[in-house]
Amino acid sequence: MLRAPSTLLTAVPRALEEVRAAGPLVQCLTNTVTVNLVANTLLALGAAPAMADLPGEAGTLAGVADAVYVNLGTPGAEQRAGMLEAARACDTLGRPWVLDPVAVGPLALRTALAAQLLELRPTVVRGNASEIRALAGTDGGGRGVDATHGVEESLDAACAVAVRTGGVVTVSGPVDLVTDGTTVVRVANGHPLLTRMTGGGCALGGIVAAFVGVHDDALEATVAACGAYTVAAERAAQAATGPGSFAVRLLDELALLDAPTLAEAVRFA
Amino acid sequence: MLRAPSTLLTAVPRALEEVRAAGPLVQCLTNTVTVNLVANTLLALGAAPAMADLPGEAGTLAGVADAVYVNLGTPGAEQRAGMLEAARACDTLGRPWVLDPVAVGPLALRTALAAQLLELRPTVVRGNASEIRALAGTDGGGRGVDATHGVEESLDAACAVAVRTGGVVTVSGPVDLVTDGTTVVRVANGHPLLTRMTGGGCALGGIVAAFVGVHDDALEATVAACGAYTVAAERAAQAATGPGSFAVRLLDELALLDAPTLAEAVRFA
Amino acid sequence: MLRAPSTLLTAVPRALEEVRAAGPLVQCLTNTVTVNLVANTLLALGAAPAMADLPGEAGTLAGVADAVYVNLGTPGAEQRAGMLEAARACDTLGRPWVLDPVAVGPLALRTALAAQLLELRPTVVRGNASEIRALAGTDGGGRGVDATHGVEESLDAACAVAVRTGGVVTVSGPVDLVTDGTTVVRVANGHPLLTRMTGGGCALGGIVAAFVGVHDDALEATVAACGAYTVAAERAAQAATGPGSFAVRLLDELALLDAPTLAEAVRFA
Description:
Pfam families (chains A, B, C): HK
Catalytic activity (chains A, B, C): 5-(2-hydroxyethyl)-4-methylthiazole + ATP = 4-methyl-5-(2-phosphooxyethyl)-thiazole + ADP + H(+)
Binding site for substrate (chains A, B, C): 51, 199
Strand order of the largest sheet of chain A: 2-1-3-4-5-6-7-8
Shape of chain A: globular
Largest interface: A-B, 33 and 34 residues
Helix content of chain A: 40-55%
Number of helices of chain A: 11
CATH topology of chain A: UDP-N-acetylmuramoyl-L-alanine:D-glutamate ligase
Number of domains of chain A: 1
Strand content of chain A: 5-15%
Cofactor (chains A, B, C): Mg(2+)
Structural class of chain A: alpha/beta
EC number (chains A, B, C): 2.7.1.50
Radius of gyration of chain A: 16 Å
Number of strands of chain A: 8
Oligomer: homotrimer
CATH class of chain A: Alpha Beta
């Protein structure tokens, strides 16, 4: 089923304006590799990141945050406990939260943790095709953070995960897929340079959290997040001479992006 | 009480020259979010950062460092033990050290840790208005890393903390406040882009440590650090198109900054 | 003994082409300070970094990676266990791996860990002069990450370590030294800006792992890695106005570097 593009074309820029106006507090429990990028992309967008991830603090912050982002990239023992604490608080309070199941499938600790977290009904799950397939039990996942499957090969898995959580699933790739298990939306602004910097997916995960923190319709919020992020990336790529200057310019473009530009540039496939 | 501006106008550029000449070894026990930026700003300035933060090593390094920077942003169990070990070594040896009480107040682990560390007499405490108020017991702090109070609303709290530690307190904001409990200095070179990148405060905290590592008068050293950092930030902002290019240019400007430029550009409010 | 320059001049650009063609999966167990840079330099080069460093996952990933990079910069308890697990897997499977003994000598935890890891026969050891001397037992090492000895003062130590591991040792500095205990090669493209950004050595360590992951002759692979990295750095320095813009441009130049440019620019001393 396809949501009417006209509805989305209105909702996407409005959601961006809501993020700018509210400056949502986004708690991030994320990996040590790209935590700096996640914080900086949220700040550039106009959100307020807070990275408290330890048990004894994670639940407290989840109680006051507008949304929570949980990323399994480097799940140390304290982080695993903090993630469960935060996700339980979200589940109890009805707080929107995003799960990013980095490299689940081949690696044991995070695969077991992802199964526990999935029970706590993430508002959105964001991953690459291999991760979403692994989460659905379709197969054993990719090699590390790289998808070994195409986005469309994960459509059934994405729908299955969405049905299980009662939430939204988005699969990142050249075309981003967003589904709530029945409706499927494809956002076609992906740029290859996003795969040449580390954290291209993590940064999007944090941004999805910012959007679901202010916009109640989680499918629209996720589509808007994918659109805002990849439109900014497209514009950054035009000014870049390689992956280093691209990552820098991406922050500038996220800060510069306005609703009319987004409405004009976002493409649905 | 105001220290004579003429004294400060001489001391500030001289302190920068002392940092350049000595290349102080600054041990940093800091958060995983902005640790890279803290190291890079110190290197750009001409200092030598060393990030050993584990118990069993932290005290050893504090014994040979010129100054130590302790930042509570992501205080895991090992880091908490390492911070206490390093701060105790500093207290015993009379080594200058800087405490950055990130997000104390609402979050339990770091609030308890900050209370312990405060007993070990940090040479300088650097924070935003909400953190300094929480440290003084004035109120419960902000939401995460964002100050919900203006700098001037923290003046009494800053003086109270300075009196308690026998050291200096600096409150970061559009105008940076520096006090030893009696003298109050205000440095007015703050730039809004410093709040659009993560670690704007952490980087200053590391730089304060570099200055107190070479310049004996802690009030002058802290004023000089705030001046050097925010003057570099002002110059970076002129060349930036957003928060990404600003952060990159800030490193370049910290490396380029010389004493005459600093003397001319620093403003006292 | 000197390997014939003509052999190296052929091998170096060919090894770069092999990295580009294979996109080796490089597992990194590295420090929280520069982990983002290590991942980004590998991505820029065309390799696929994966940063799993926890016991229970580290050995699994080592079983499928093309090479493993172990860096002792911030060796928390979980990381120490993960490093041993990964290195044991490498030793058992004959998987190439690189040890980067950051700040060994003065600091106890990592010095003990380095001694254990050295028994697991790293394919390459990369460090600065003080670290290699400390590893060889020549003296107590530098202060933190800074070398207090010149590269040539570590030649005997480098050869001794290479003989002990049966592998290659490279000492980084203005001129990079590479030896297998008998042959000695010097690559003379080092640039001072590499010491003004944090992780200049760590990034090279990851790149050495990428090269030994695809090129069987470890001495040639290490020379090629040093050459590719420092030639990219030289080119980045020409476009930089300071350490911030240098680090950004370094990623762009690593991505742009091709085999003919490398062959022309690499210099043997």
